[in-house]
Amino acid sequence: MAAAAVALGVAELVAVATGARSAPLVAVGGVVVDHVPAPVKDFGIAVFGVHDKIALLVGTALLVTGYAYGLGVIGRRRWAVAVTGIAVFGAIGAAAALTRTGVGPEAVLPSLLGAAVAVPVLRYLLRAAGRAEPVTTASFPAATVGPDPAGAGPTVAGRDDSAQGRSAYLRRSRRRFVRDLGIVAGIAAAGGVAGRMLTSRRAVTAARQSVALPVTTEPAPVLPAAVQVPGAVPYVTPNRDFYRIDTALVTPQVDPASWRLRIHGMVRNPITLTWADLLRRPMVARYVTLACVSNEVGGDLIGNALWLGTPIRELLDEADPLPEADQVVQRSVDGWTCGTPTAVLRDGRDALLAIGMNGEPLPVSHGFPVRMVVPGLYGYVSACKWITELELTRFADFDAYWVPRGWSAQAPVKTQSRIDTPRDGASRRSGPVTVAGVAWAQHRGIAKVEVQVDDGPWTNAALAPTVSADTWTQWSLSWPAEPGRHTLRVRATDLDGSTQTGARAEPAPDGATGWHEVAVNIE
Ligand SMILES: Nc1nc2c(c(=O)[nH]1)N[C@H]1C(S)=C(S)[C@@H](COP(=O)(O)O)O[C@H]1N2
Ligand SMILES: [Mo]
């Protein structure tokens, strides 16, 4: 196991040069993320929540540990099996790394070099272990280990072969073995930690800090003072609280200096854009509420931000798509894809190639340097982070990342609402109780929010003003609460006139439905 730790530590060090995603744990974890069957993934997400990625890395490390334990045990008797096992370990890591998008052939190096170092380390440790083990005279020295059976034992000429002499020798050997183990584990840990630190030094934090956002070509929308309702979540979600969803085990580090956006495929005029080109384009600031299709009824995978970016419609016009190209495939540097209807991106809504979020450059975890934001569509079909390609194609010809995994190819945001206060299970004094929350139907807008207490009538809540139909709307209602246990329910109606359905549906394949309910206790 110590030898395996050395392999992983060496691999982390090599990955400083070859990229974080070529390190074996991350590479193998990435393959697992992309290929794990949906029920297993759902289980992992259900158990570990937003820590599912850390759980995956720890799980992978545990698997490696178990494997290493087996190799260690077998290797004491059959060295060739251990060497083969280590080679297989290296090959799996190398093969996994090669499947990652955007990595070159050098991605095999961390796994292969890690495995290559593990062989002599394991041999050394097994020999040291053999010396530190009591053996019967009859079996000695045949039980010494490794390709070099000359591992010195107590029967070697000139040594004290008495019982006492042997046990003194054993004690010394054990101490030495434990010391060797400590040294090896220390080297492994130092290598791993140093590797990780050096990798993160290569991160784009500095590049991000030196970005000066361009000024908008028109003033940003002014928020009406009444946009915020007491008791609801903040109308503008601070960046640090903004939900984060993606498949990336290590956050892609994209330097604006080397960033390119290629618009190609079924277009008459392919375009390649650099960061400098992008900054020269018109920039607008728009509040847009982004929602994840995985958001459960009442869930918090939704946030509202002021995005700064250039309208994608004009870029698409310049690229001049062929009429049959009904899908724009957005591709991230890590190979993740999403497919957006071309018509949606050209229908005049504020679909942005965004570089700013709430007055800052995009946080790295939210797609620095450039991502897409499209009002009215769930994130998985519209909001590619670390974007590097727009490929015009047809829905009939290409399935984006989540489509073969059971999610719909097209997914407009469903009209939804949530009660933020009181919380489920809360207690309040009888009398007027403020019930408040958010409702959203991006790009259609909210016309009405109603609240129902127990089986009573639906009552209209007051709607706060918003800046556009592309953000959530806050609502509130003063409820004359009477003692007892009550259930509060909310439903919204959008400006198209459709009222949110009460029929419960799971997030898959195209967004959860149902009314959010909270139970409250009035004293
Ligand atoms: N590159 C990349 N972009 C991505 C994803 C991803 O996995 N990889 N996930 C999408 C999903 S499912 C959602 S809901 C939004 C979330 O954006 P956020 O993390 O900035 O909130 O990003 C989208 N963009
Ligand atoms: Mo999502």
Automatic annotation (TrEMBL):
The chain crosses the membrane at residues 54-72, 79-101, 107-126, 181-199. GO terms for molecular function: heme binding; molybdopterin cofactor binding; sulfite oxidase activity. GO terms for biological process: sulfur compound metabolic process. InterPro entries: Ig_E-set, OxRdtase_Mopterin-bd_dom, OxRdtase_Mopterin-bd_sf. Residues 250-402 form the Oxidoreductase molybdopterin-binding domain. Coiled coil: none annotated. Keywords: Membrane, Transmembrane, Transmembrane helix. This is Molybdopterin-dependent oxidoreductase.
